[in-house]
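dumping this here before i forget
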Amino acid sequence: MILGHLGLALGARAVDREAPLAWLVAASVAPDVLDVGLAAGGVCNAAGVYTHSLLAIAATSAVLGAGAAWQTRSGRTALVVAALVVSHLLADYLTGLKALWIGGPVIGLDLYRWPWADFAVEAPIIAGGWWAARRWGNLPRWLNARAALVVLLAGQLTADALQKADAIRRPSACAKSDLLKRAGRLL
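structure:
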């Protein structure tokens, strides 16, 4: 999932109107941020085993939930933040392939193979989250505007188009040579 994670964060804002939007967004994308960090550090994270496996999601969920509880003093916000981390993995099972545990099976529908199908799944999540947050979520004015929804959907469409063109892929220290080959094709 690409921008659909942000749609989930916006939908969570409708559940907990007092939750800081920064916590919700951070929780919704945390496994991918960790993925990028590992790739930048040269750590091979094949199939997201260190960031998207069941154990990794449980640990990330616990750490971010505890951090949100400490910073906001709200048990409700802590639970919503922890649930968003878990929702990240569930959403990624739709669009990608993820390892359940180290050495375990890699599962998922891998909708990235069909960008039109990925967009068909992610666009309603983005729109639904934005609509719910707009209606019940006490959003900042700039995010409440219809233009924000248009930008989010256009961003998703662009990401799917680039995915189809093989111009972007998940970062992986396991495939540095493959990444260099792809970069050579783009130049």
